[in-house]
Amino acid sequence: LELLEYQINEISQADIKVGEIEQLKQRKTFLHNAKNIISALNTALSAINGDDDNAGIKSVVESSLADFDSIQDVDGDLKAIYNQCDTVNEQLEILKDALSNKLYSIDYDESELDSIEERLNLLYNFANKYGETEQDMLNYLANAEKQRNSIVNSDEEIERLSAEYDSALDKTVTAADILSAHRKGLAYKLEQDVQEELLFLDMPKIKFSVNFEKGNLSLNGYDKIEFLISTNPGEPLKPLAKIASGGELSRIMLAIKNIVARYDVIDTLIFDEIDAGISGRTAQKVSEKLKLLSKSHQILCITHLAQIAAMADTHFLIEKMVDENHSETVIRPLDKLQSEQELARILGGVEITESVLENAREMKALANQKSSDSFQN
Fold first, then answer.
1. Which of 15, 66, 155, 183 is 20–30 Å from 274 (CA)?
2. Are 293 and 257 in contact (CB under 8 A)?
3. Handedness of CA 279, 280, 282, 285 (dihedral sign)
4. In this structure, are residues 340 and 364 in contact, taking their beta carbons and an 8 Å threshold?
5. What pairs with residue 221 in β-bridges?
6. Which segments within the chain are labelled E, that is strand?
7. Is the dihedral of CA 157, 160, 166, 170 positive or negative?
8. What whole-number distance in Å separates Cα of residue 349 and Cα of residue 342?
9. Cβ(137)–Cβ(11) under 8 Å?
10. Predicted confidence (pLDDT) per residue in 296-328, tens digit
């Protein structure tokens, strides 16, 4: 605050004017040449007016005019000469007035030069401290006054900002309350829809719930949301991420993704071990849900069940090759015949008979039919 007060007083007392430095430099140049200017003006006036020893140019021209006045009408040339002399006389009168006015207007004082030098030194010193130009110095003054006022009036400023903060906080909390209420309404609907999906996927005993806790206020509101499940009747709801197995987690994700498919921004979904612990009718239902979800997403599914594999559009076989020195995982695409053989291998084990192959073809044909019906619906 002391430094700001010193700077404000120093700049204010200097009474800086924009353009002052340039004006002082021009005046300094003029005063340095003032004696020569006065001498030149006096010499020119003496030449026009004359002095005690010599006649001036003006008196000579006026004398010539008097001589030509009586003879100017004798012929045209003399008339022209007379007129030219008269014009010169008029111009000399104008020039004499200009020289006189300039000479009498000069206010020359040698002490003024010292004052100008002192003022310029002050402004050059200010230029090093507060800004190159006078406007920069005045801007520095304004900023210093603003900073001083902010310090002096800090209590009032804190009070004003606190009131502004409280108002903004009230508005934000109100918006977060509205957002939370809207979320809770949608969460109830999500719980019902997920339960229906899980029932379809033969997981009727699993209970699904959306838990809300109030957390720190942020850009997304204050809700801390967690999905809870109970896998067996009578068991309490617990966090989904902690108690669900890989297969259960995949099937629950499949249920949720089917519900929010229209709003989901993730283009590709990967399901690993979604067939863990299921077979028969349940596997068929899972495959149908996967096919339905593939309408809006690219689905990558790793499976060992023929019912799920048969529903896919494209098959890749993943194999691990092992020799004495190292192991290597290989993935390769399968054509139609190879896909049928792999489906048969999953269905029938090591030995693939013609009946097993026929079963695989039939399963693929039924899957294609269900896929067609699904997409038409």
1. 183
2. yes
3. positive
4. yes
5. 218
6. 207-218, 221-230, 238-239, 268-272, 298-302, 316-322, 327-333
7. negative
8. 10
9. yes
10. 889 999 888 888 899 999 999 998 888 888 899
User: Using CA atoms, how far apart are residues 203 and 178, in angstroms rounded to an integer?
Assistant: 34
Residues 181-240: tens digit of each pLDDT: 999 999 999 999 999 988 888 888 888 999 999 999 999 999 999 999 888 888 899 998
Q: Specify the residue for token string 């900023």.
A: 143
Tens of pLDDT along 245-299?
A: 777 777 888 888 888 877 778 888 888 878 877 777 888 888 888 888 888 889 9
Question: By CB neighbour count within 10 A (0-12 exposed, 13-18 middle, 19+ buried), where does 229 fall?
Answer: buried
Q: Which two tokens stand for residue 153?
A: 């009036």
Which has the closest alpha carbon to 244: 230, 259, 256, 234? 230
Q: How far apart are CA 238 and CA 232, in angstroms?
A: 11
DSSP state of 326: -
Helix (H), strand (E) at residue 177: helix 154-200
> Six-digit token pair at 126?
């200010």
Whole-structure pTM value: 0.48
Beta strand 238-239 with 221-230: parallel, antiparallel or unpaired? Answer: antiparallel
Q: Is the distance from CB of 267 to CB of 291 less than 8 angstroms?
A: no
Burial readout 342-351 (b: 16 or more C-beta within 10 A, e: otherwise) = bbbbbbbeee
Nearest to 4 by CA among 142, 105, 148, 106: 148
| Phi, psi at 332, each rounded to 5° | -145, 145
